[in-house]
Specification:
The complex is a heterodimer of chains A (about 400) and B (about 475).
Chain A (H helix, E strand, L loop, with lengths): L2 H12 L3 E4 L6 E5 L2 H14 L3 E4 L13 E4 L6 E5 L4 E5 L4 H10 L2 E2 L11 H7 L6 H4 L6 E7 L5 E5 L11 H5 L8 E8 L1 E2 L3 E9 L1 H12 L7 E8 L2 E10 L1 H14 L5 E3 L1 H14 L5 E6 L5 H11 L4 E5 L4 E6 L3 H13 L4 E5 L2 H7 L9 H12 L15
Parallel strand pairs in A: 2-4, 3-4
Antiparallel strand pairs in A: 1-2, 5-6, 6-10, 7-11, 8-9, 8-10, 12-14, 12-15, 13-14, 13-17, 16-18, 16-19, 17-18
Chain B lengths: L4 H11 L4 E2 L2 H6 L14 E3 L4 H13 L4 E4 L16 E4 L6 E5 L4 E4 L5 H8 L4 E2 L12 H7 L6 H4 L6 E7 L5 E5 L10 H5 L8 E8 L1 E2 L3 E9 L2 H14 L5 E6 H8 L13 E9 L2 H17 L2 E6 L3 H12 L1 H6 L4 E4 L2 E2 L5 H14 L4 E5 L5 E2 L1 E5 L4 H20 L18 H4 L2 H14 L25
The chains are: A alpha+beta (about 400), B alpha+beta (about 475).
């Protein structure tokens, strides 16, 4: 269908509630400002049989995903509520991480989340569930999200979870949505768990061989040092760094720093604020620069094996290992065959491989999650059918599911 | 109602006649859980002893389309483990093996019937423990904790059950077996472990559970601060949380609770003239940091009106302080024939107002309300002592509970923080969720259990759920 026809149809449905762009001729981009407009657009797409993909700021998944319509949340960019005393905030899906940081810093709050990429929207972060180095101390993205609003392709608005830190009313639907890559609907609003901004924030770093940084990781994890972030990084072949982020009171951070230096005998240096910020920002940026980004969920016992298998199977890329959670993220260039081989060998060790981002050709053949385990594939397929019965959303969760 | 004879014969062959209970007296034993206001008698009670027997039982029940209700120790407080009509109570307490403590990976693999506290005891030689600690942890089972996404006092710092589960083997209500999650904890596909935890036994039975363990803290300080008003105590909670100090636990008890504890065998030396006491625990691996945080907490509670602050002088003293808190429900339970333990969560800053409103609700219905709760999380537990034989009083308890739920919802909170919906909270679900969201929950449940055989009649009120089609692509 012509993009101009789609645009005209949607203009009739939502009027001024959305901006439209159909300049590339093949697809329309719709940028609504309200949940009701999102619901109306999705419902129309569903009834017309159009294929839809979601977008945040545009920094997320591959732009080459084939779709008749791109639905972006970039104009839904209001932080609707901030309650510092309750350590809670609500943001529309199109609010960027930079804006959240700026707003929360103003009131002495902190969102313990540092996902890969720059200027990403909170909706995109929730959809991909992609966590960064702070998962070491604060858990993954899913632990920072208290509730969210999702709109299904049929235009159903679902309000999941709540606004308080403990909540078992009904099923834990946010868990299904966070990290579901939008396959169950468009996330339009997110309730966030905040923390008090730390008094002191210090980063220690050292360069060493892989074996040495891995050994240092083990020692730190078994020491009295409490880390907000513990990250091993390899930007070039066999050149590894270890970085430790310590936050808290000045006394505690100083003491942990001393313990760190005494416990692990490698050449530590303390990074001053600017350099520390640059270090962490580089890490976030570098792991999405290349065409393919994957995540491997190892364990304490399998993290070394997984890192070595990764090195053996794929060409050199930007590799990051997050302490305590033992998640490995790799970004580089890879073909489907290599990903398949790595996924298969990792699965033999019970290590899941998730493709966070890849060109459409690779993503559509391998899927974000590949071949799921026996029985699970059927559950996921049925869940998708429940939320997206006619396959409106172009999101290849599993291999060859596009 | 009864279950088909063919099904009974097959169940008997699977687990042995001794482990199938059909008599009125035996079924009556399983007609209650920790919720005193509801009694449902199951058609039969089946008690398998192994994973293999459990699989057989679920497959038999699925084949004969017999509904069933998984049940652990029956300590739940929302009626979630009750079965009625032709439903079978499927008791999992004999599946109580700790299969493995994997110290290197800091995980444990357990069966669902393992009692919560026994896991920490088994992990202790490795310097590890299991953090979620419901007040019933000496009796409740880990399978039940998974079903309810249980919390506990120390969840303020360490998170609730869902934060500690990495992998589950699940027997679906069809009898099929699936593995969810991964040993390291990263999701394998969409986060179905996160979805399963807290599903109240309606998605199937977790037959093997891999849980995260954490290092035992080497430094602990436990403080008891007492206040002359609930409002001061509530303000102190907000001050502590807002300071950036993260206590392991931040618990509050009001005067009625304190007096009940002090008059019981669990007496902990709480000051009985206090309007409220705060039990604050700080822990970690760094003694100096814990001491510094404790001093900061002392200053904060003093600034907010604490009359006195007691610091546990020994591990025995600490244990005594905690015994009073953890057995507070037991102490309250001895006052009257029945005790309703309510559960709701509100934003922390609304705690002082809510506590006053709860007291007013108690007065309105001529009921004694006692509060013992996880103040750091804003997780309230108002308790009503009553006699269920007094129908008028029982009705007032129901009405007062309803008023408290509405007050918590108005404050921006939720109707349950850790006890679950079960049958007790079913009537409030459409106050909290619209029909579309409830319909979504039912649609998700039907993915796991298309025939709605597992724990029927819980969590969502069917009449409030908007219809969802489940067309196959």
């Amino acid at each position: 269908m012509k993009s101009s026809t789609i645009r005209d149809r949607l203009v009739r449905v939502v009027g001024d509630d959305a901006d439209f762009d159909d300049t590339d001729g093949n697809r329309v981009t719709a940028a609504p400002t309200t949940e009701s407009a999102c619901a109306a657009i999705l419902k129309t797409a569903h009834s017309e049989g159009w294929k839809v993909r979601f977008s945040g700021s545009g920094a997320g998944p591959s732009p080459d995903i084939p779709a008749d319509l791109v639905l972006t949340t970039r104009r839904m960019h209001t932080i609707t509520e901030t309650k510092p005393a309750d350590l809670f905030a609500t943001a529309e899906a199109g609010v960027t991480t930079e804006e959240l940081k700026r707003r929360f810093t103003q009131c002495g709050m902190w969102l313990a989340m540092d996902p890969p990429g720059e200027n990403r929207t909170i909706g995109s972060i929730a959809a991909t569930g992609a966590s960064g180095s702070l998962q070491t101390g604060y858990g993954p993205v899913r632990d920072q999200i208290l509730g969210l609003t999702v709109i299904t392709p049929e235009g159903r608005v679902i309000v999941c979870g709540g606004r308080v830190v403990k909540n078992v009313a009904g099923y834990d639907m946010p868990k299904l949505m966070v990290g579901g890559f939008g396959a169950f609907g468009l996330i339009t609003k997110v309730h966030l768990r905040l923390r008090v901004a730390p008094e002191t924030d210090v980063t220690w770093m050292a360069s060493a061989t892989f074996d040495d940084v891995l050994n240092a990781k083990r020692l730190i994890e078994n020491s009295a040092v409490t880390t907000a972030a513990l990250e091993l990084r390899c930007a070039q072949a066999d050149e590894w760094t270890i970085a430790v982020r310590l936050v808290g009171s000045a006394d505690a951070v100083e003491r942990h720093g001393k313990t760190l230096a005494q416990t692990i005998s490698i050449s530590w240096s303390q990074l001053h604020d600017d350099k520390a910020n640059v270090h962490w920002a580089e890490g976030r940026r570098a792991c999405v620069l290349d065409p393919v980004t994957i995540r491997l969920g190892a364990s304490f016992a399998t993290v070394a094996w997984t890192a070595n298998e990764l090195k053996k199977t794929l060409v050199a890329g930007f590799t990051t290992i997050y302490g305590t959670r033992n998640v490995i993220r790799w970004s580089g260039t890879a073909n489907a065959d290599a990903i398949r081989r790595l996924r298969s060998s990792a699965a033999d060790q019970s290590v899941p491989l998730t493709i966070e981002n890849a060109p459409w050709k690779l993503l559509s053949s391998e899927g974000h999650f590949g071949e799921l385990r026996s029985g699970v594939a059927q559950l996921v397929s049925s869940l998708r059918s429940a939320f997206d019965p006619t396959g409106t959303l172009v999101i290849p969760l599993t291999a060859h599911s596009a | 109602m009864s279950i088909p004879q063919q099904a009974l014969r097959a169940l008997t062959a699977a687990v042995g006649a001794r482990w199938i209970r059909l008599s009125d007296a035996a079924r009556e034993t399983y007609a209650s859980d920790g919720l005193p206001t509801r009694k449902w008698r199951p058609a039969a009670v089946v008690i398998p002893s192994s994973r293999e027997e459990l699989i057989d039982v679920v497959q038999i029940l699925a084949h004969h389309r017999v509904p069933f209700v998984p049940r652990g120790a029956g300590t739940g407080l929302s009626g979630g483990a009750l079965a009625r009509g032709n439903a079978v109570s499927l008791v999992l307490t004999r599946l109580n093996r700790i299969i493995e403590i994997d110290a290197e990976n800091r995980t444990a693999l357990v069966e669902p019937g393992v009692v919560n506290i026994k896991l920490s005891a088994a992990a202790a030689p490795y310097g590890l423990y299991y953090a979620p600690d419901p007040s019933s942890q000496t009796a409740c089972t880990l399978g039940g904790n998974i079903a309810e996404n249980s919390g506990g006092p120390h969840c303020f710092k360490y998170g609730v059950t869902t934060n500690h589960v990495s992998e589950l083997e699940v027997i679906l209500p069809s009898g099929d077996i699936v593995m969810l999650g991964s040993p390291g904890g990263d999701a394998w596909g969409p986060d179905l472990v996160g979805l399963f935890v807290g599903s109240e036994g309606m998605f199937g039975i977790a037959s093997r559970i891999r849980l995260r363990l954490v290092p035992i803290p080497t430094a602990i300080r436990t403080l008891l601060a007492d206040f002359s008003s609930l409002r001061d105590a509530g303000s102190a909670v907000s001050a502590i949380v807002g300071s950036g100090v993260v206590p392991a636990a931040l618990e509050m008890m009001d005067q009625n609770t304190v007096r009940a504890v002090e008059e019981s065998i669990y007496a902990a030396g709480y000051p009985v003239d206090a309007a409220a006491v705060l039990l604050v625990e700080l822990d970690g691996q760094d003694q100096a940091e814990v001491e510094a945080d404790a001093e900061r907490v002392k200053t904060l509670v003093s600034d907010h009106g604490a009359r006195s602050i007691r610091s546990a002088s020994s591990s025995a003293d600490r244990a005594q302080l905690w015994l009073g808190r953890k057995k507070a429900f037991g102490a309250l339970g001895r006052i009257s024939p029945d005790l309703v333990v309510q559960d709701a969560v509100v934003p922390r800053t609304t705690l002082p107002d809510l506590l006053e409103e709860i007291a007013e609700i108690g007065r309105r219905y001529d009921l004694v309300v006692s509060n013992v709760f996880h103040a750091g999380d804003g997780n309230l537990h108002p308790n009503f002592n009553f006699d269920s034989r007094d129908k008028d009083q029982a009705a007032r308890v129901e009405q007062a509970s309803s008023d408290i739920m509405q007050a918590c919802l108005r404050a921006g909170g939720t109707i349950t923080g850790e006890h679950g919906i079960g049958i007790d909270k079913l009537r409030y679900m459409d106050d909290m969720f619209d029909s579309e969201t409830l319909g979504a929950m039912r649609a998700v449940r039907k993915v796991f259990d298309p025939r709605e055989l597992s724990n029927p009649g819980k969590v969502y009120p069917v009449h409030s759920c908007r219809e969802w089609t489940t067309a196959q692509r």
